[in-house]
TrEMBL record:
Gene Ontology terms describing biological process: porphyrin-containing compound biosynthetic process
The Uroporphyrinogen decarboxylase (URO-D) domain, residue ranges: 180-378
Any one Gene Ontology molecular-function term assigned to this protein's record: uroporphyrinogen decarboxylase activity
Taxonomic lineage: Bacteria, Bacillati, Bacillota, Clostridia, Eubacteriales
Pfam families: URO-D
Protein name: Uroporphyrinogen decarboxylase
InterPro entries: UROD/MetE-like_sf, Uroporphyrinogen_deCOase
Amino acid sequence: MIEKMPSSEERTQLFTDLMDGKIPKRVPVVAQLTHEFAIQYAGGDLQEDQWDTTNLEASFEKVCEDFYSDLLPVSAFRLPSFYKLLGSKNFVMGSNGFLQHPDVEGLKLEDYDDFIASPYNCILEKVLPNLHSALNSDPVTRSLVMAKAFKAYTDETSNLFRIYGNLINKSNYGTVNFYAGFCEAPFDILSDQLRGFKNISLDVRRIPDKVEAAVNAVTPLMIKMGNQPFPDKYNATFIPLHMAPYLRDKDFERLYWPSFKKLVEGLAEKGMRSFLFVEQDWMRYVDYLAELPAGTLMTFEHGDPKIVKEKLGNKHIISGFYPLSLLKTGTKEQCIDKAKELIEIMAPGGGYYFSFDKVIITLNSVNVDNAKAVLDYVANNASY
Protein backbone atom coordinates (compact mmCIF):
# COMPACT_ATOMS: atom_id res chain seq x y z
CA MET A 1 0.00 0.00 0.00
CA ILE A 2 0.98 3.66 -0.12
CA GLU A 3 3.63 4.65 2.40
CA LYS A 4 1.50 7.33 4.07
CA MET A 5 -2.25 7.42 3.49
CA PRO A 6 -3.26 10.95 2.46
CA SER A 7 -6.20 12.85 3.86
CA SER A 8 -9.41 13.53 1.96
CA GLU A 9 -8.37 17.16 1.60
CA GLU A 10 -5.01 16.19 0.08
CA ARG A 11 -6.65 13.80 -2.35
CA THR A 12 -9.31 16.31 -3.33
CA GLN A 13 -6.63 18.93 -3.92
CA LEU A 14 -4.92 16.64 -6.44
CA PHE A 15 -8.04 16.70 -8.60
CA THR A 16 -8.97 20.35 -8.12
CA ASP A 17 -5.44 21.30 -9.17
CA LEU A 18 -5.71 18.97 -12.14
CA MET A 19 -8.98 20.49 -13.29
CA ASP A 20 -7.76 24.04 -12.64
CA GLY A 21 -4.90 23.46 -15.07
CA LYS A 22 -2.28 23.33 -12.31
CA ILE A 23 0.27 20.57 -11.77
CA PRO A 24 -0.76 18.49 -8.74
CA LYS A 25 1.65 17.34 -6.04
CA ARG A 26 1.67 13.88 -7.61
CA VAL A 27 -0.23 11.89 -10.24
CA PRO A 28 -3.71 11.05 -8.90
CA VAL A 29 -4.78 7.40 -9.04
CA VAL A 30 -8.29 6.26 -9.93
CA ALA A 31 -9.14 2.56 -9.74
CA GLN A 32 -12.50 1.68 -11.26
CA LEU A 33 -14.04 -1.60 -10.11
CA THR A 34 -17.64 -2.72 -10.54
CA HIS A 35 -19.98 -4.15 -7.97
CA GLU A 36 -19.80 -7.52 -9.74
CA PHE A 37 -16.03 -7.60 -9.22
CA ALA A 38 -16.41 -6.52 -5.59
CA ILE A 39 -18.92 -9.28 -4.85
CA GLN A 40 -16.67 -11.90 -6.43
CA TYR A 41 -13.52 -10.57 -4.76
CA ALA A 42 -15.14 -10.61 -1.33
CA GLY A 43 -16.41 -14.16 -1.84
CA GLY A 44 -20.07 -13.20 -2.23
CA ASP A 45 -22.74 -14.66 -4.47
CA LEU A 46 -23.59 -12.68 -7.60
CA GLN A 47 -26.98 -14.35 -7.81
CA GLU A 48 -27.93 -13.12 -4.34
CA ASP A 49 -26.03 -9.96 -3.51
CA GLN A 50 -27.30 -7.95 -6.48
CA TRP A 51 -30.86 -8.48 -5.31
CA ASP A 52 -30.21 -7.58 -1.67
CA THR A 53 -27.95 -4.55 -1.85
CA THR A 54 -27.58 -4.34 1.94
CA ASN A 55 -24.87 -6.99 1.43
CA LEU A 56 -22.85 -4.74 -0.88
CA GLU A 57 -21.28 -2.55 1.77
CA ALA A 58 -19.04 -5.29 3.17
CA SER A 59 -17.91 -6.27 -0.36
CA PHE A 60 -17.20 -2.65 -1.28
CA GLU A 61 -15.30 -2.09 1.95
CA LYS A 62 -13.07 -5.08 1.22
CA VAL A 63 -12.17 -3.60 -2.17
CA CYS A 64 -11.47 -0.20 -0.60
CA GLU A 65 -9.13 -1.79 1.92
CA ASP A 66 -7.13 -3.72 -0.68
CA PHE A 67 -6.98 -1.52 -3.82
CA TYR A 68 -5.43 1.93 -3.68
CA SER A 69 -7.36 4.79 -5.23
CA ASP A 70 -7.65 8.52 -4.57
CA LEU A 71 -11.37 8.42 -5.39
CA LEU A 72 -13.90 5.80 -4.32
CA PRO A 73 -12.83 2.82 -6.46
CA VAL A 74 -16.05 0.82 -6.63
CA SER A 75 -19.60 1.53 -7.73
CA ALA A 76 -22.78 -0.15 -8.95
CA PHE A 77 -23.99 1.23 -12.25
CA ARG A 78 -26.89 -1.11 -12.98
CA LEU A 79 -28.81 -3.39 -10.64
CA PRO A 80 -31.39 -5.96 -11.78
CA SER A 81 -34.41 -5.29 -9.55
CA PHE A 82 -36.09 -2.49 -11.50
CA TYR A 83 -35.24 -4.04 -14.86
CA LYS A 84 -36.94 -7.24 -13.74
CA LEU A 85 -40.05 -5.36 -12.65
CA LEU A 86 -40.21 -3.60 -16.01
CA GLY A 87 -39.80 -6.82 -17.97
CA SER A 88 -36.81 -5.25 -19.70
CA LYS A 89 -35.51 -6.57 -22.97
CA ASN A 90 -32.54 -4.20 -23.17
CA PHE A 91 -30.97 -5.25 -19.84
CA VAL A 92 -31.47 -8.90 -18.97
CA MET A 93 -29.90 -10.87 -16.14
CA GLY A 94 -27.81 -13.74 -17.50
CA SER A 95 -27.37 -17.13 -15.88
CA ASN A 96 -23.82 -16.11 -14.92
CA GLY A 97 -25.05 -13.25 -12.72
CA PHE A 98 -24.19 -10.42 -15.13
CA LEU A 99 -26.69 -8.05 -16.71
CA GLN A 100 -26.55 -8.47 -20.47
CA HIS A 101 -27.41 -5.81 -23.08
CA PRO A 102 -28.86 -7.59 -26.13
CA ASP A 103 -29.13 -5.86 -29.48
CA VAL A 104 -32.65 -4.42 -29.20
CA GLU A 105 -35.06 -2.44 -31.35
CA GLY A 106 -36.90 0.09 -29.23
CA LEU A 107 -37.69 2.41 -32.12
CA LYS A 108 -39.36 0.84 -35.14
CA LEU A 109 -38.32 1.98 -38.60
CA GLU A 110 -41.77 3.38 -39.26
CA ASP A 111 -41.59 5.51 -36.10
CA TYR A 112 -38.62 7.64 -37.16
CA ASP A 113 -40.85 10.56 -38.17
CA ASP A 114 -42.66 10.55 -34.82
CA PHE A 115 -39.32 10.47 -33.03
CA ILE A 116 -37.95 13.36 -35.08
CA ALA A 117 -41.10 15.41 -34.36
CA SER A 118 -40.97 14.75 -30.59
CA PRO A 119 -38.30 12.43 -29.16
CA TYR A 120 -39.63 12.62 -25.61
CA ASN A 121 -43.22 11.77 -26.52
CA CYS A 122 -42.12 9.00 -28.85
CA ILE A 123 -39.93 7.44 -26.15
CA LEU A 124 -42.81 7.49 -23.66
CA GLU A 125 -45.50 6.27 -26.01
CA LYS A 126 -43.64 3.81 -28.24
CA VAL A 127 -40.06 3.08 -27.23
CA LEU A 128 -40.56 2.23 -23.56
CA PRO A 129 -43.37 -0.29 -24.24
CA ASN A 130 -41.19 -1.88 -26.92
CA LEU A 131 -38.20 -2.20 -24.59
CA HIS A 132 -40.09 -3.20 -21.43
CA SER A 133 -42.78 -5.85 -21.80
CA ALA A 134 -44.51 -4.98 -18.51
CA LEU A 135 -45.18 -1.47 -19.84
CA ASN A 136 -46.85 -2.81 -22.97
CA SER A 137 -50.20 -2.95 -21.24
CA ASP A 138 -53.25 -0.91 -20.32
CA PRO A 139 -52.69 2.50 -18.70
CA VAL A 140 -53.54 1.38 -15.15
CA THR A 141 -51.22 -1.64 -15.22
CA ARG A 142 -48.51 0.40 -16.89
CA SER A 143 -48.73 3.06 -14.19
CA LEU A 144 -48.51 0.51 -11.39
CA VAL A 145 -45.52 -1.21 -12.97
CA MET A 146 -43.70 2.08 -13.45
CA ALA A 147 -44.42 3.10 -9.84
CA LYS A 148 -43.04 -0.20 -8.50
CA ALA A 149 -39.95 0.01 -10.69
CA PHE A 150 -39.27 3.62 -9.74
CA LYS A 151 -39.65 2.75 -6.05
CA ALA A 152 -37.15 -0.09 -6.46
CA TYR A 153 -34.78 2.23 -8.31
CA THR A 154 -34.93 4.94 -5.65
CA ASP A 155 -34.52 2.39 -2.85
CA GLU A 156 -31.46 0.87 -4.51
CA THR A 157 -29.96 4.26 -5.32
CA SER A 158 -30.53 5.63 -1.81
CA ASN A 159 -28.83 2.59 -0.30
CA LEU A 160 -25.89 2.88 -2.70
CA PHE A 161 -25.44 6.58 -1.92
CA ARG A 162 -25.47 5.73 1.79
CA ILE A 163 -22.76 3.12 1.20
CA TYR A 164 -20.69 5.49 -0.95
CA GLY A 165 -20.88 8.21 1.70
CA ASN A 166 -19.82 5.82 4.45
CA LEU A 167 -16.85 4.55 2.48
CA ILE A 168 -15.70 8.00 1.32
CA ASN A 169 -15.72 9.20 4.93
CA LYS A 170 -14.12 6.06 6.33
CA SER A 171 -11.33 5.82 3.76
CA ASN A 172 -10.76 9.57 3.26
CA TYR A 173 -11.29 9.57 -0.49
CA GLY A 174 -11.33 12.72 -2.56
CA THR A 175 -14.75 14.30 -2.93
CA VAL A 176 -14.84 15.19 -6.63
CA ASN A 177 -17.38 13.17 -8.59
CA PHE A 178 -16.79 12.11 -12.20
CA TYR A 179 -20.27 10.55 -12.32
CA ALA A 180 -22.38 13.47 -11.11
CA GLY A 181 -24.48 13.13 -14.28
CA PHE A 182 -24.91 10.64 -17.10
CA CYS A 183 -26.04 10.75 -20.72
CA GLU A 184 -25.06 9.40 -24.12
CA ALA A 185 -23.93 10.95 -27.36
CA PRO A 186 -27.06 11.49 -29.51
CA PHE A 187 -25.94 8.94 -32.12
CA ASP A 188 -25.14 6.43 -29.37
CA ILE A 189 -28.56 6.65 -27.70
CA LEU A 190 -30.11 6.09 -31.12
CA SER A 191 -27.85 3.07 -31.63
CA ASP A 192 -27.77 1.51 -28.15
CA GLN A 193 -31.35 1.76 -26.96
CA LEU A 194 -33.50 2.77 -29.92
CA ARG A 195 -32.48 1.15 -33.21
CA GLY A 196 -29.82 -1.37 -32.15
CA PHE A 197 -26.38 -1.96 -33.67
CA LYS A 198 -27.59 -3.94 -36.67
CA ASN A 199 -30.44 -1.61 -37.57
CA ILE A 200 -28.49 1.62 -37.18
CA SER A 201 -25.76 0.21 -39.42
CA LEU A 202 -28.38 -0.28 -42.12
CA ASP A 203 -30.05 3.08 -41.46
CA VAL A 204 -26.78 4.98 -41.92
CA ARG A 205 -26.56 3.67 -45.46
CA ARG A 206 -30.23 3.60 -46.44
CA ILE A 207 -31.83 6.59 -44.68
CA PRO A 208 -28.99 8.91 -43.51
CA ASP A 209 -31.24 11.97 -43.72
CA LYS A 210 -33.58 10.53 -41.10
CA VAL A 211 -30.68 9.44 -38.90
CA GLU A 212 -29.27 12.95 -39.04
CA ALA A 213 -32.64 14.48 -38.21
CA ALA A 214 -33.11 12.02 -35.33
CA VAL A 215 -29.75 12.73 -33.66
CA ASN A 216 -30.33 16.47 -34.01
CA ALA A 217 -33.81 16.12 -32.52
CA VAL A 218 -32.62 14.15 -29.49
CA THR A 219 -29.62 16.37 -28.69
CA PRO A 220 -31.54 18.80 -26.40
CA LEU A 221 -32.94 15.80 -24.53
CA MET A 222 -29.41 14.43 -23.98
CA ILE A 223 -28.24 17.82 -22.70
CA LYS A 224 -31.12 17.79 -20.25
CA MET A 225 -30.39 14.18 -19.26
CA GLY A 226 -26.74 15.06 -18.61
CA ASN A 227 -27.57 17.86 -16.19
CA GLN A 228 -25.97 17.43 -12.77
CA PRO A 229 -28.21 17.99 -9.71
CA PHE A 230 -25.60 20.35 -8.24
CA PRO A 231 -23.33 21.62 -11.04
CA ASP A 232 -19.74 22.07 -9.96
CA LYS A 233 -16.63 22.62 -12.09
CA TYR A 234 -14.91 19.82 -10.18
CA ASN A 235 -17.61 17.26 -10.96
CA ALA A 236 -18.43 15.75 -14.35
CA THR A 237 -21.13 14.15 -16.46
CA PHE A 238 -20.15 10.68 -17.64
CA ILE A 239 -20.59 10.00 -21.37
CA PRO A 240 -19.50 6.59 -22.70
CA LEU A 241 -18.72 6.75 -26.42
CA HIS A 242 -19.69 3.65 -28.37
CA MET A 243 -20.35 3.79 -32.11
CA ALA A 244 -17.83 6.21 -33.59
CA PRO A 245 -15.05 3.64 -34.27
CA TYR A 246 -17.53 1.55 -36.27
CA LEU A 247 -18.44 4.38 -38.63
CA ARG A 248 -16.88 5.48 -41.89
CA ASP A 249 -15.17 8.86 -41.67
CA LYS A 250 -17.83 10.60 -43.76
CA ASP A 251 -20.62 9.16 -41.59
CA PHE A 252 -18.84 10.18 -38.40
CA GLU A 253 -18.39 13.70 -39.73
CA ARG A 254 -22.04 14.04 -40.64
CA LEU A 255 -23.98 11.87 -38.20
CA TYR A 256 -21.93 11.53 -35.01
CA TRP A 257 -19.68 14.49 -34.41
CA PRO A 258 -21.90 17.60 -34.81
CA SER A 259 -24.56 16.51 -32.32
CA PHE A 260 -22.00 15.08 -29.90
CA LYS A 261 -19.99 18.30 -29.93
CA LYS A 262 -23.20 20.26 -29.36
CA LEU A 263 -23.96 18.03 -26.37
CA VAL A 264 -20.58 18.59 -24.68
CA GLU A 265 -20.68 22.31 -25.46
CA GLY A 266 -24.26 22.52 -24.19
CA LEU A 267 -23.25 21.00 -20.85
CA ALA A 268 -20.22 23.29 -20.65
CA GLU A 269 -22.39 26.36 -21.22
CA LYS A 270 -24.30 25.32 -18.10
CA GLY A 271 -21.09 25.00 -16.10
CA MET A 272 -20.82 21.22 -16.37
CA ARG A 273 -17.69 19.33 -17.34
CA SER A 274 -17.90 16.10 -19.38
CA PHE A 275 -16.07 12.84 -18.64
CA LEU A 276 -15.71 10.74 -21.78
CA PHE A 277 -14.94 7.04 -21.95
CA VAL A 278 -13.27 7.01 -25.36
CA GLU A 279 -14.14 3.42 -26.19
CA GLN A 280 -12.23 1.32 -28.72
CA ASP A 281 -9.79 3.15 -31.02
CA TRP A 282 -10.50 6.83 -31.69
CA MET A 283 -7.15 7.68 -33.30
CA ARG A 284 -8.89 8.69 -36.55
CA TYR A 285 -10.78 11.30 -34.57
CA VAL A 286 -8.23 12.71 -32.13
CA ASP A 287 -8.19 16.08 -33.89
CA TYR A 288 -11.95 16.35 -33.43
CA LEU A 289 -11.61 15.77 -29.68
CA ALA A 290 -9.26 18.74 -29.53
CA GLU A 291 -12.22 20.97 -30.47
CA LEU A 292 -14.19 20.14 -27.30
CA PRO A 293 -14.34 22.58 -24.35
CA ALA A 294 -11.07 22.85 -22.42
CA GLY A 295 -10.70 20.57 -19.41
CA THR A 296 -12.84 17.74 -20.74
CA LEU A 297 -11.94 14.47 -18.99
CA MET A 298 -11.13 11.57 -21.33
CA THR A 299 -10.27 7.95 -20.51
CA PHE A 300 -8.83 6.19 -23.56
CA GLU A 301 -9.21 2.48 -24.12
CA HIS A 302 -6.90 2.05 -27.14
CA GLY A 303 -4.65 4.20 -29.30
CA ASP A 304 -1.25 5.85 -29.28
CA PRO A 305 -0.68 7.70 -25.98
CA LYS A 306 2.16 9.77 -27.46
CA ILE A 307 -0.08 11.20 -30.18
CA VAL A 308 -2.95 11.78 -27.76
CA LYS A 309 -0.64 13.55 -25.30
CA GLU A 310 0.79 15.71 -28.08
CA LYS A 311 -2.58 16.73 -29.52
CA LEU A 312 -4.79 16.88 -26.42
CA GLY A 313 -2.52 17.12 -23.39
CA ASN A 314 -2.32 20.91 -23.30
CA LYS A 315 -6.10 21.34 -23.32
CA HIS A 316 -7.80 18.27 -21.86
CA ILE A 317 -7.35 15.85 -18.95
CA ILE A 318 -6.35 12.38 -20.07
CA SER A 319 -6.24 8.93 -18.47
CA GLY A 320 -6.45 5.27 -19.44
CA PHE A 321 -4.35 3.38 -22.00
CA TYR A 322 -3.15 0.89 -19.38
CA PRO A 323 -4.29 -2.53 -20.72
CA LEU A 324 -6.20 -4.76 -18.30
CA SER A 325 -5.02 -7.69 -20.41
CA LEU A 326 -1.46 -7.13 -19.17
CA LEU A 327 -2.64 -7.39 -15.56
CA LYS A 328 -3.92 -10.84 -16.46
CA THR A 329 -0.95 -12.17 -18.43
CA GLY A 330 2.11 -10.18 -17.35
CA THR A 331 4.54 -10.57 -14.47
CA LYS A 332 4.45 -8.02 -11.67
CA GLU A 333 7.61 -6.42 -13.06
CA GLN A 334 6.14 -6.18 -16.56
CA CYS A 335 2.98 -4.59 -15.19
CA ILE A 336 4.89 -1.98 -13.21
CA ASP A 337 7.17 -1.27 -16.18
CA LYS A 338 4.08 -0.54 -18.31
CA ALA A 339 2.89 1.94 -15.70
CA LYS A 340 6.32 3.62 -15.74
CA GLU A 341 6.20 3.83 -19.54
CA LEU A 342 2.78 5.49 -19.58
CA ILE A 343 3.65 7.92 -16.80
CA GLU A 344 6.81 9.02 -18.65
CA ILE A 345 4.68 9.78 -21.71
CA MET A 346 1.56 11.22 -20.14
CA ALA A 347 2.59 12.99 -16.92
CA PRO A 348 4.97 15.76 -18.09
CA GLY A 349 3.22 19.11 -18.05
CA GLY A 350 0.20 17.84 -16.09
CA GLY A 351 -3.28 17.11 -17.44
CA TYR A 352 -3.06 13.41 -16.54
CA TYR A 353 -4.25 11.00 -13.89
CA PHE A 354 -3.61 7.27 -13.78
CA SER A 355 -6.32 4.72 -14.51
CA PHE A 356 -6.65 1.46 -16.38
CA ASP A 357 -8.09 1.37 -19.90
CA LYS A 358 -11.46 0.14 -18.66
CA VAL A 359 -13.27 -0.82 -15.48
CA ILE A 360 -12.58 -4.23 -13.95
CA ILE A 361 -15.76 -6.29 -14.07
CA THR A 362 -14.82 -9.92 -13.39
CA LEU A 363 -12.43 -11.43 -10.88
CA ASN A 364 -10.81 -13.68 -13.47
CA SER A 365 -10.12 -10.85 -15.94
CA VAL A 366 -7.04 -9.71 -13.99
CA ASN A 367 -4.39 -10.98 -11.63
CA VAL A 368 -5.45 -9.02 -8.56
CA ASP A 369 -1.93 -9.01 -7.11
CA ASN A 370 -0.68 -7.31 -10.28
CA ALA A 371 -3.48 -4.75 -10.13
CA LYS A 372 -2.69 -3.93 -6.50
CA ALA A 373 1.04 -3.68 -7.23
CA VAL A 374 0.50 -1.24 -10.11
CA LEU A 375 -1.86 0.99 -8.13
CA ASP A 376 0.52 1.05 -5.16
CA TYR A 377 3.51 1.79 -7.38
CA VAL A 378 1.84 4.76 -9.06
CA ALA A 379 0.56 6.16 -5.76
CA ASN A 380 4.04 5.96 -4.21
CA ASN A 381 6.20 6.99 -7.15
CA ALA A 382 4.39 8.89 -9.91
CA SER A 383 5.04 12.61 -10.11
CA TYR A 384 4.93 15.14 -12.91
